[in-house]
Amino acid sequence: MTEISMTVNGKAARASVPDNTLLVDFLREHLRLTGTHVGCDTSQCGACIVHMDGRAVKSCTMLAASAEGAEVTTIEGLANGALHPMQTAFKENHGLQCGFCTPGMIMSATDMVARYKAAGKELTEEAIRHELEGNICRCTGYHNIVRAIQDGAAKMVAG
Amino acid sequence: MTEQGIGARVLRKEDKRFITGKGRYTDDIRNERQAYAAFVRSPHAHAKVTAIDSAEAEKMDGVIAVLTGKQLTEDGIGNLICGWAVNSRDGSPMNMGAWSALATDKVRYVGDAVALVVAETQAVARTAAETVVVDYDELPAVVHPADALEDGAPQVHENAPGNLIFDWGLGDEAAVDKALEGASHVTEMKIVNNRLSPNPMEPRSAIAAYDEAEDHYTLYTTSQNPHLARLVLSAFYQVAPEHKLRVIAPDVGGGFGSKIYIYPEEIACLWASMKTKRSVKWTANRSEAFLTDAHGRDHVSTARIGFDADNRIVGFKVDTIANLGAYMSLFSSAVPTYLYATLLSGQYDIANIYCNVRTVYTNTAPVDAYRGAGRPEACFLLERIMETAARELDVDPAELRRANFIREFPHQTPVIMAYDAGDFAGNLDQALEAADYKGFPARKADAAKRGKLRGIGLSSYIEACGIAPSAAVGSLGAGVGLWESAEVRVNPVGTIEVLTGSHSHGQGHETTFAQVVAERFGLPVDNIQIVHGDTDKVQFGMGTYGSRSGPVGLSAIVKALDKVEAKVKKIAAHVLEVSEDDLVVENGEVKVAGTDRSMAWHEVGLAAYTAHNLPAGMEPGLKEGAFYDPENFTFPAGTYVCEVEVDPDTGETEIVQFVASDDFGTIINPMIVEGQVHGGIAQGVGQAMLENVVYDEDGQLLSASYMDYTMPRADDVPSFAIHHHSTKSPSNPLGIKGCGEAGAIGTPPAVINAITDAIGNNDLQMPATAPRVWAALQAAASSKIAAE
Q: Complex ipTM, two decimals?
């Protein structure tokens, strides 16, 4: 067993977990934050993406112990009360259908917008499609996800 | 149209929970004292099971039980069945082999379950499952459909000699042969329809909880049709009687057909819950999903189509071998027969069609309906051979299609279907215009300057949806009726609950269905709640597949709304002391036409429940139910245009334009319908260019992860141009045809027609990966040199 402690969505989280506990299992099973999903077992689908210290990570591919001391944000903690502009954009652009990949998509999208802004680069449609390499959606054909991210990026700048 | 009624782009009511991480999928649920199951699965494609030693697993800390097929059989749990009886041409019944939820004497595909371990945690269950020692005597395996019929092929089931399940035919073979003999041109092709894995992003999951005190079971499961699951689990598998089994399909993360069926895991978890007196939960990992979710397609066909001197089709003959895998899944027999051969007339007036289908067992995962189910296979065959014929006849593929279109409705095809409405030329024209078909030669020349090979391809698809008229499918062998049911409850305050047997797993029913009610009574969608997915709440239902939620599910709701409206008018007429005929319901009021007198909607609701002043003899309350059985299938149709550019040095292919013109009849929410088409096209592009389930010769699945099975990613597909040109379906009250499967049906031939046009070699099978396209380019170049 390993003692772990981190901040999840602004709250302190501590637990004693088996050494091999994945971060996603810690979030889902210990903290019952079930918005973070598991869609594959090879780090391909991105349904499990959360932010760790402001960076998008695949929570199925790291041990909970590796997040020791980190600030973790999940889909549940992305906004305080009201919706995050990217969440609003996904709704307004019909960027989701079954909703299973959606939390990972949104976490990936907000990370991508932040990185491009920091680098002073334009987030074009081509760039969005390339950046989504690690997120698989089976429902939308990505068309409206791309629109949502373009709109969400604009909303984040405006907001 | 009202602001939130039929035709409005209403944003989805269900989105808030999904975008905030508050969706409630099966794996998100955890019961008290939750136990976890893991399955011991066969690593061999074909083997005799000689012994199972679970002693070590049983000794592990946290293991509650190890259960085997022998115990399952002793407890009287029934075999899994196929629910659609299809006879061979000679009248003999299909050869259905036994399928136990846990294999007893023999395993027939890699992933076949032989035992399950129930433990305190998922980790312990999975670890313990690995310690169960199963002794296998390996047998030779057969994988490919054509190989299964070869003399001496390994026998998958004893009661299916030669691995033949049935040898079925549809149409008049002699008439087709005669027509082809007299044809002035015959095009012949061999076509493989590649095997696919549906891959909803949410893996299958089940939580079974047995309540000993009540002798009652609750099953949470990832199902597209919870009532059908309950019916089959009760009637055929004898897991529990229907009134003692509640099935809940909460938020379900995509289905695409793969979550229609009842799988061994649900049966085993229910039974294990009773055995252990614990709530038992199982969630597939992605490898298990690849191994055990029902696959789709996997046909090998030869087809011959004949034309007269005016390029009119005179006959079409198809011979197909369809792989059903190791066991017959729930609707497996219907997919390559009544959902396939019945669509071989496409959009064309063809007097003579004959199709022979031989279905076979192999040592692979069961094959059943996947988005489109039979119709993509028919469409691919017909639209590939039409394009090929046009090239051979040296006519414009669009014009060859146009010359053969059906133009008058109703139209009876020679393969069962009676098309009721459509404007095929209208969709073709819209698609060609939107794609600037005339401008293609200039674009091709421009691409050539950039060193790219540009090609264009068409596909004019039709599908039969709104599945299905119960008596008709019953006469064709279906074991169930395919109606739908609804109940509309108007509460005393005027808010409305609609209970529907349709199930939403991404389709947006909570919004679309509410829009129909909003339109009818002029109420805001926020006052309307759609309830689905729970057999304890919803009266009954046949679920969601075959693009049936709109044409069938909504029709049941409309029937119930008719009854509600009739009662509302009776109550209001009584209270207002006017004739019912003078009343109209609009804008949330029951109005006396031509006057300013009215009752507010909620006042009618209150009157119905207080029952202080109702017409004599009227029962209190305002709740009506309806069952709707469709009169006919519906026939969504359209034309897709795909344009590609191929890099001749690498075979890399980019879709540079994709245009769809669809006829879905009445559209409730264009935003949601377009989303359905986008997703269907992406799956069609996946089949055409990326996806392939591959077993090696020993039956080992080589494509069992997202590292090996190529799912379409965002940079594999373009943005799509979606257009509508609609004719209403005359067969249901709203005129809806359905939109869920069109993209997956119409897309693959458009893509392959475009690529083969670009590379100048028609010999290209799906998926058209870069290496395959490159090889086809080299072959074309070689044959050109040889010819010179």
A: 0.98
